[in-house]
Amino acid sequence: MANINDSIEQLTVALQQLTVELAECPHADAPKLPESLPASELSFSEGVESFVQRNREYAEKTRSVSVGSY
């Protein structure tokens, strides 16, 4: 069985080569992604919105609470 460090090194080299190849050969048919999106264009499902809201409310309620051993 090969040494795990050798395997990791081989994987790293392969990923670096793939990254270089993809950077040098841009795909003409791939759609160009915007660098940023306005917040007004973002939309989330109702479940995500409620999850974020619950977490914000919980964070507000527990902001000054600290638990620990002294």
Distance between the termini: 49 Å
Q: Profile the largest sheet.
A: none
| Mean residue pLDDT | 82
- Report the uncertain regions: none
- Shape summary: flat
Fraction in beta strands: under 5%
Q: Given the helix and strand composition, which structural class is it? A: mainly alpha
Give, in order, the helices and strands.
HH
Number of helices: 2
**Helix residue percentage:** 40-55%
Tell me the number of strands.
Answer: 0
Radius of gyration, in angstroms, nearest whole number: 23 Å
Q: Brief description of this entry?
A:
By secondary structure, the protein is mostly helical. 53% of the residues lie in helices and 0% in strands.
Description:
This protein has helices spanning about 5-25, 45-60. About 0% of the residues are buried. The chain is flat. The model has no long low-confidence stretch (mean pLDDT about 80). It is mainly alpha-helical and about 70 residues long. Helix content is about 55%, strand content about 0%.
Please render the helix and strand layout as text.
Layout: H1 4-24, H2 46-61
Features:
70 residues, flat
